[in-house]
């Protein structure tokens, strides 16, 4: 059974807005308490009669929120019929019951959905169109949720005053009238509004009362003052979109922009109505024209946020960070709050920006090394490995004089459950020289990144690889054979293609002797040469060695003790 204190009923269609219903439930629960919110997934126990529980819930609720997404009207059942046309459709039944019980209805428009017209609805729920809708968007989630909460709070306050405090309120109103400062009519409207504050007040009150014609007139009266505040535009847009649709709202702002083309606030408000790509383009143009207009940078950061995009590429993460940094800098100079009547909106933006900036802090550093190349020489020739800082969906490469790019292919599913591109590229045997390399890849969004251009210098890369390996190994080994002491150089002769000389000495550090090296110019890893050891006195204790490289550098002198290395 539903708790007797439940006040808000959430009506939604799973196929349409189930993802949003949970988020809205959580937001409202934080404000009003979970026991005051009814949503079927949390309030209906297994084996309970659904219709009975819903009926009881609506009997105890003051508000019915109807969540409307892009497919709310067009969802179909297994037979291909529109669900809303079925009298037994639970969404329709809940709305019908709410209307019959005179419950206050608040349509919630999600995903830029429009408010259905009465003629598109069955007759028994057409009355829902009389109620003002509230738009909730991902990009302004916190702001829109706060607006919803305020509308519910306003309604609650009105009910409390009307039912419990009629006499005290009446006395106060009489006193105000006697003092000559009363200028509100019975609906709270300011008569003969002369100031922008009065016009904005009338717009909000008319909107709350469901008088959208008067609200639109008051909004237009307010906008004639050309004040640089954003939140009145957000409220006006929200009302227009819910009542007249997105296209009519765009036309209205096209008109406003033509009347004041230099207003950064109107340009910003107009960009909010665009599709994402056009909005980003207009916002970027606005930042070039007015580089101190902080709200544009905050909105750009939202366009690249995880809430907006979900899975993001490294470039998108970096762009979010760039815009957040610029926004916070401009805010510190006072270039954000001044554009909002409700300062709490600006304060919330700063908190949000600060939180997201901490999460995105690594992106720019990684972007500087977005692609790095690792080169290796094996027995069959050269290979290169494309080390990409994010997971690509496809890798392309072009080597030396190739006329076009090649795809690296796939490595299999591995642990991700997805086929991933192979970052290993086989080049084969190469003559010593410098070879241009170009890498491109598709990121998680399918957007091409690159080209990233490199040069494979085989001498340089081979030299780096050999010097690294030499620091991790013993260069010689000791073996006795027929009462002879032999010192083998086998371990390092596979790297002689970058050696100029091998200098050594017995039981001292004079390096007076030279070990003969057979030249190798065929490419690849050198084959073993014929001379691989030296014969030393049986009493030899150690051998000291230094390698001179073909780049005219030298290794450190290293001494190897027979007792530690003998077989």
Describe the fold and architecture.
The protein has 567 residues and is α+β, with helices and mostly antiparallel strands. The chain has helices spanning 14-32, 40-43, 50-59, 90-100, 141-164, 166-179, 196-208, 212-223, 231-244, 246-259, 264-271, 276-289, 294-303, 306-309, 314-332, 343-359, 363-367, 458-470, 490-493, 562-565, and strands at 8-11, 37-38, 63-68, 104-110, 134-136, 371-378, 381-388, 394-399, 406-407, 424-428, 434-442, 448-457, 477-481, 484-488, 499-506, 513-515, 533-536, 542-549, 558-561. It has a five-stranded parallel sheet with strand order 2-1-3-4-5, with helices on both faces. A four-stranded antiparallel sheet has the order 9-8-11-12. Strands 16-15-18-19 form a four-stranded antiparallel sheet. Helix 12 runs antiparallel to helix 13. The longest helix has 24 residues, at 141-164.
